[in-house]
Amino acid sequence: MDIRHILNNCILCPRKCGVDRTSGHTGACHMTDTVRVSRAALHMWEEPCISGENGSGAVFFSGCALGCCFCQNKAISGGKAGKDISISRLCNIFFELQDKGANNINLVTPDHYIPQIISAIDMARSRNFKLPFVYNCSGYETAEMIQLLDGYIDVYLPDFKFMSPDLSAKYSNAPDYPEHAKASISEMVRQCGGDQTRFDDDGIMQRGVIVRHLQLPDHLDDSKSIITYLYNTYKDSIYISIMNQYTPMPGIENRFPELGRTITSSEYDELVDYAIDIGVENGFIQEGETAKESFIPAFDNEGV
């Protein structure tokens, strides 16, 4: 794959900013074509079939094209934190995480580095690398870019954040989010979902699709619409992860007062009960005090 050709008029994300990232300019993702990583370490806080007991080998990429106002990872999503690395260094990180016992390589917020990631995976597989690759993304992707990953990604772990274009415009300046989430998830399911889903003997997913939804305060109806769409469209071809860990970041209440609190247990219970009532069986829920900043990892260049 010709990395420079793809990145010199960048259309990797739905914003299609067209910036020449190979010339040192930054796109909608806040990044040039140089890979920047803020953390590469075993991560224990994913779904049980991703983290297991050993942990997921999470590689946190700096930058993000979506830019949600409530982002818990703002330290890296704006592209300021992290360390610039080469593609060969990224490949070596995969092996280092494998040596630490990781169940998989978990590529977190990777969309703006698709060409470089493909090159790193090719390099790793030429050295007989065996772990599955997990694509942990926002849902704000184009189906065309996800098609480039066919044969490279084993497990897709996208978000489905908003069903309402008004909400996605308000909180992420992306009124087209729902249409792109639907199209990109459809392509992910084609590649890895349904009958292709499989787990190893320890219950670790080796191939499949898990769609996450982070419930926001005061938006239960939108959450129900997402769960309804996913179940009616895919039934048991995917797993649905319903998350209650929304954590209001400092100052969010000044811009969006409704987002200035965590969700209540009754809000979350109602959404989970709704999912069960409509027939969802392949799913994950969260229990306990997940809405704490302590669940946000330190983006201190560990393992980079």
From TrEMBL:
[4Fe-4S] cluster binds at residues 64, 68, 71. InterPro entries: Aldolase_TIM (IPR013785), MJ0674-like (IPR040085), Pyrv-formate_lyase-activ_prd (IPR016431), rSAM (IPR007197), rSAM_sf (IPR058240). Pfam families: Radical_SAM (PF04055). Keywords: Iron, Iron-sulfur, Metal-binding, S-adenosyl-L-methionine. One of its GO terms (molecular function) is metal ion binding. The keyword Iron applies. Residues 60-170 form the Radical SAM core domain. Its cofactor is [4Fe-4S] cluster. This is Radical SAM protein. Binds 1 [4Fe-4S] cluster. The cluster is coordinated with 3 cysteines and an exchangeable S-adenosyl-L-methionine. Transmembrane segments: none annotated.
